[in-house]
Amino acid sequence: MSDETVTGTHRIELDEPKCVAAGQCVMVAPEVFDQRDEDGVAVVLDETPAAELLDDVREAVAVCPAAALRLVAL
Amino acid sequence: MTDTTLTDTGRTPDVVDYPTPRDPRCPFAQPANVLATTEADQMARARIWDGSTPWLVTKYADQHALLTDPRLSIDERREGYPHMTRGRSVSAQHTPRLITNTDAPEHTQLRRVVNLPFTVKRVEAMRPRLQELVDGLLDEMLAGPRPVDLVQAFALPVPTIVITEMLGMDYGNREDFQHASHVLVSHDATPEESAAAGAVLGGHVAAAMEAKMAEPADDVMSELAARVKAGEMTMRGALSMSTAILIAGHETSASMISLGTLALLQNPDQLEYFRSIVDDPKAVAAAVEELLRYLSIVHTGVRRIANEDIQVGADVIRKDEGLVLDVAAANWDPAQFPEPDRLDLTRSARSHHAFGYGAHQCLGQTLARVELQVAFRALVSRVPDLRLAIPAEDVDFAYEGVAYGLHSLPVTW
Ligand code: HEM
Ligand code: HEM
Ligand code: SF4
């Protein structure tokens, strides 16, 4: 991989209306995701996460039951 | 979409009696005829209790796609919906609108009203209380006589105490809760038995809700009571939701604790591995995911009905046809999980469907995960010499429920 030291090669997109607040993303990548206090809907803490977090983010995207998350290469 | 051409090969799908009894020689293995359908070219159909034959979806990839497909509905009032049981087919017609029987956008709205107590932050905050509870039960068990039934001493009390405390209900009524829940999720229960059990539970829930309306405390039922007062929820909805949480919240986790313990005892190398990782929270979490995948206790499939014609591979699901999505079979689909019948606590299993998938994926999954992490970790580290007190072939499996489990698990140490 050539992007290992670069920060912000990818952006996370959250389709908020789809989120069912299952919290899978928070469990997989707590550095990147949180849940809103009022209704549990996901919050992206870091939209362009550093390269070392990307594996966790990819897993979060894969396990999100609502297909509400996307990771887009910049 | 402009391409609406669907190709139907017109073949007659295989029909599998469903649920299929397991091989009597090994109560643990999934039924071979259902598993075989994960590797077939096309989907099979399931013949269920009323003789109807909804589609049987067992391939992991098909389930993953279908459970997020907005063309499927969970509206159980519809003609052709493949009900789990006769009791459910009757009660479905007068169940209020809940997260368990609505589609987006109504489902999304209802779920946002109930999911706050189950967010990762709130559940993680319960970890110390869970640890204290688990340690207390183990202290008591270790000080008592041997052998002991692990289901009654540990597997059932952990989730029942947790869920009653979370809801703000009285644990003193646990025998009513446990009995009524068991009847309500049982395939053999008649509609009359289900109705009677529902009435007992309903009585306790209504009494508790009345108390919370008058005097709110820091618990889930008080939160629901506040939603009712604010006009965000009907009283009937709040009562049904509380009942659903009470039922879903203890039998499932209890099954996972007892079956998981049995699976570890039958796989000594995996038990040894678990002991070696108890101080590594990530490894413990991964091990629990693999136990959830391997055991896949929800063994009677999740159910849906089609709103439109849907092409799946070479098959076409027609509008108004029912689907049984067998999450246990998908978790043993070799295309997703190589050597699926091997318990391998080091494998990456988190993508399993044990909690379902899509918008209806288990509301209580974070709670269940944390309960299981704390329970197994304590059990394997505090009872190093744990073993079965009866031959493995005499263990009393319980298949009658939506989730399978054990009636009892005599252990010693
Ligand atoms: C989930 C993974 C498992 C799979 C795929 C599996 C599969 C099988 C198979 C194929 C047999 C041979 C049946 C035959 O042809 O004789 C068998 C036998 C047996 N299994 Fe399992 N098994 C699993 C887990 C377990 C567990 C955890 C137990 C412990 C309770 C267990 C208890 C037994 C017993 C006692 C037999 C011998 C029965 C007999 O030969 O009379 N199995 N198993
Ligand atoms: C290991 C334990 C558990 C397992 C294996 C499990 C499994 C499942 C599955 C497969 C579904 C999906 C149903 C569908 O798609 O139609 C589900 C939904 C649900 N579960 Fe669980 N569950 C467990 C524990 C819990 C707990 C502890 C609670 C309560 C606090 C709970 C509450 C619910 C609720 C309310 C739903 C319906 C969600 C919706 O339809 O939006 N479950 N569960
Ligand atoms: S995993 Fe998906 S559905 Fe769950 S909180 Fe995160 S974004 Fe929302």
Describe this protein's structure.
The complex is a heterodimer of chains A (74) and B (413). Chain A is 20% helix and 22% strand. With 74 residues, chain A is of the alpha+beta class. Chain A has one domain: Alpha-Beta Plaits. In chain A, the strands form two sheets. Chain A has a two-stranded antiparallel sheet. Chain A has a two-stranded antiparallel ribbon with strand order 2-3. Chain B has one domain (3-72, 79-93, 103-412): Orthogonal Bundle (Cytochrome p450). Chain B has 413 residues and is of the alpha+beta class. In chain B, helix 6 runs parallel beside helix 16. Chain B starts with 14 loop residues before the first strand and ends with a strand. Chain B contains 16 helices and 13 strands. Chain A binds chain B through residues 17-18, 20-24, 26-28, 30, 34-35, 38-41, 59, 62-63, 65-67, and chain B through 67-68, 104-105, 107-108, 111-113, 115-116, 118-121, 285, 350-351, 356-359, 361-363, 365-366, 369. The complex binds protoporphyrin IX containing FE (HEM) (2 copies) and iron/sulfur cluster (SF4). The site of one protoporphyrin IX containing FE (HEM) has 23 residues of chain B, from helix 12 and helix 16.
Summarize the structure.
The complex is a heterodimer of chains A (74) and B (413). Chain A contains 2 helices and 4 strands.
Query: What would you call the structural class of chain A?
Result: alpha+beta
* Residue-averaged pLDDT of chain A: 88
Estimated radius of gyration of chain A: 12 Å
User: Beta-strand level of the residues of chain A, as a percent range?
Assistant: 15-25%
